[in-house]
Design a protein that fits this description.
The protein has 99 residues and is mostly helical. It has helices at residues 6-15, 22-45, 74-79, and strands spanning 84-85, 88-89. The chain has a two-stranded antiparallel ribbon with strand order 1-2. Belongs to the GatC family. Its EC number is 6.3.5.-.
């Protein structure tokens, strides 16, 4: 027996505001049924003696520690800019503004 009916798929489509044809309802019902059966099978395999995990292998952080280093002052950063206006980099306009 199917885990999800055609009417339930139509209801989900309405809730999702999706326009679905009658042929798509049948197709989606079959696809969702396969998905739900697969999820049910995974639930059957899970055993009480196996703790839940988010990853199958342990993960370690590969990032280095943050180290504060001195940066450029705004004057140093703007000194090499081709065009500066009001203590900011000035760049060519790429989008036209609407009037």
């Amino acid at each position: 027996m199917a885990a999800i009916s055609r009417d339930e798929v139509a209801h989900l489509a309405r809730l999702s505001r999706l326009a679905v044809t009658p042929d798509e309802l049948d197709m989606f019902a079959g696809q969702l049924d396969v998905i739900l059966q697969s999820v049910a099978r995974v639930g059957e395999v899970a055993a009480d003696d196996i703790p839940p995990t988010s990853h199958s292998v342990p993960l370690t952080n590969v990032f280095r520690d943050d180290v504060v280093v001195p940066g450029l002052s705004s004057e140093e950063a703007l000194a090499m800019a081709p065009d500066v206006a009001e203590q900011r980099f000035r760049v060519p306009r790429i989008l036209e503004e609407e009037a």
